[in-house]
Design the sequence.
């Protein structure tokens, strides 16, 4: 995964070569007669727990010992793709898409208690979940259905109630201090920043930008341009701060630098 943890103080350039394996666990497997769609996800660590999806559902482990804390099993392991995960307000959120329909798949958003794995709420969606992002107590999912097109929908984390929705827009799942970057998909082109709590447009630019990340402080978005450049965008106004030609790709940022994955040729 491409993530940045601002609280990390142990692993750095001086200590990385001293990192050693402390524990490992075998993830669950479904019954042999089942053919699951879901695969193991990148681990999500929060509050002393490690959350990870497996072929049967979602599991939580103790971050220091690897001891299993709880398991949540899919109702139908043959109809669940690998979900997007996020933690907020004592809940583990999982945005998922079914895998039995290739022409018009549906999705869903599930909230589990982080301590027990007990389901607190869930909502069914008539569109797949292609991104999930959480900030300011709001969870936003984005996806497109064959009949209705692209949409962005925001839910209150505490109870799953819909807060706002926007048709003909798509989100790449990047937020900067309550500002959500979205792209117009029908009736024109452009990029907008929305308030994640209200859905109100804060600014709009004619540029077509693909959100790649944001700095930990939430001051800047990092986007790729149509021409393949990587650009730093001021989150409050959409003003271009800098552009690096030919540097588009998967990135992470720590507030001082932007790190870009480079493939070996």
Sequence:
């Amino acid at each position: 995964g491409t993530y940045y943890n601002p609280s990390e103080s142990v692993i750095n350039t001086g200590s990385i070569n001293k990192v050693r394996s402390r524990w490992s666990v075998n993830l669950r497997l479904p019954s042999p007669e089942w053919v699951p769609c879901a695969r193991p996800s990148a681990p999500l660590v929060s509050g002393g727990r490690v959350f990870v999806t497996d072929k049967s559902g979602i599991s939580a482990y103790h971050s220091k010992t690897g001891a299993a804390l709880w398991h949540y099993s899919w109702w139908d392991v043959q109809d669940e793709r690998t979900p997007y995960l996020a933690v907020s307000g004592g809940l583990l959120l999982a945005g998922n898409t079914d895998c039995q329909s290739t022409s018009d798949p549906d999705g869903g958003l599930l909230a589990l208690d982080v301590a027990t794995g007990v389901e607190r709420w869930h909502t069914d969606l008539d569109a797949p979940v292609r991104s999930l992002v959480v900030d300011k107590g709001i969870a936003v999912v984005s996806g497109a259905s064959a009949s209705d097109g692209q949409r962005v929908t925001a839910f209150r984390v505490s109870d799953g109630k819909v807060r706002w929705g926007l048709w003909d827009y798509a989100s790449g799942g990047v937020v900067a201090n309550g500002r959500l970057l979205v792209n117009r998909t029908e009736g024109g082109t452009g990029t907008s920043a929305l308030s994640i709590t209200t859905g109100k447009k804060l600014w709009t630019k004619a540029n077509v930008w693909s959100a790649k990340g944001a700095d930990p402080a939430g001051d800047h978005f990092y986007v790729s341009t149509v021409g393949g450049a990587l650009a730093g965008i001021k989150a409050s106004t959409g003003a271009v701060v800098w552009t690096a030609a030919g540097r588009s790709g998967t990135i992470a940022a720590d507030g001082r630098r932007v790190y870009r994955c480079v493939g070996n040729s």
Q: What stands out?
A: The mean pLDDT is 89.
